[in-house]
Amino acid sequence: MTELWQYTKLIRSKNAGPFELTFDIMFKDCESFERVRKSGRLSAETISRLYGIPLDNIRLFVLEDLLTVKFSIPRAAFSGDVDDTDVYGGQFHGPLTTLVIEQLK
Q1: Which long-range contacts does 98-102 make (Cβ < 8 Å, 24+ apart)?
Q2: What share of the chain is helix, strand, coil (3-state, %, to 5)?
């Protein structure tokens, strides 16, 4: 069983303004990028399940030349709100790191 972090050199989240989070998933090489892409596990549907966000609120970008996948989602609580748990948005990437990527045969 291989997890997403094992294919990447960086997985991070950060604020994209006070009302939105953006996530960057940067792969360590072309083979890793293609393996994860072909697995279908890094999809809007997966992000929707992991973060409880409706599909139409997810913006997903695949940047093949950069071996990177990016996505943005609305924040549950805006940055600095009394209900906010991470004012900088830097700790929301956690569920992505352990996303299981099935091995292709």
Answers
A1: 98/3, 98/4, 98/5, 99/3, 99/4, 99/41, 99/42, 99/46, 99/50, 100/1, 100/2, 100/3, 100/4, 100/41, 101/2, 101/3, 101/4, 101/7, 101/35, 101/36, 101/39, 101/41, 102/39, 102/41
A2: 30, 30, 40
pLDDT over threshold 60, residue 105 = no
Query: Does residue 2 surpass a pLDDT of 90?
Result: yes
Secondary structure letter of residue 102 according to DSSP: P
Q: Nearest to residue 71, comparing CAs of 81, 83, 63?
A: 63
Q: Where do the structural domains in the chain lie, given as residue ranges? A: 2-101
pTM of this structure: 0.90
